[in-house]
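tool=predict chain=A
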Amino acid sequence: MSSNIDYTSPSAQFTFDVNKSPLFKKDSQNFINILGVEQLNTLENVSLLDIFLSTNNVVEPHYHQNAGELVYCISGAATVSLLNPLTKQIQNYPIRPGQVANVPQGWWHYEIATADNTHLLAIFDAPTPEVILGSDILKFTPANVMAHTYCLDENQWKKTIAPIVPTTYIGPANHCKGANQHQTSPNHINPYGNGYHQPMNPYHYQYPYSYPYGSQ
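tool=predict ok
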């Protein structure tokens, strides 16, 4: 096994408390913690997200352009759904404790909790998985481009996506009462740092909260 890691260095880390590494928090029952090479510097091609969800909460549609993902259910229950780009079909995989669902690299997917106290472990074959989120695609693609490409009314499109909060991560918003309700941002914890790479946002969107995903 070849590695550039100096395992004899005093700075080499061999343990870490994932509970102290928040990526995103919606509320006390719906949040995500992260472990990557920036948290534990002896990691190689592995990282994880520790995901907690209550019933009907959704890890928003997204894809990882640099990593495959294995979703393991620790407690509760969830359905892992993915868009197979070869068959153009949505494939749904309900999982319970001890069961897994595999998401190949670059495939569009999402997870929905079907029980309270759901705990999922998402394991990646990359030291830091990159991500492109559905909320960011919808929010940052120019409305005139969407309207022209898909033959839409531009003003209607703008009105439709107005409630979307960039970098949603876990939806729906706590106060969401329907499709026409405008959402306010939940408690984002550093969406652009802490080892979770999100190169998509060309506008470097600044939230009026803490700087997304960690230090830069």
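The chain has three helices and twelve strands. The two ends are 31 Å apart (CA to CA).
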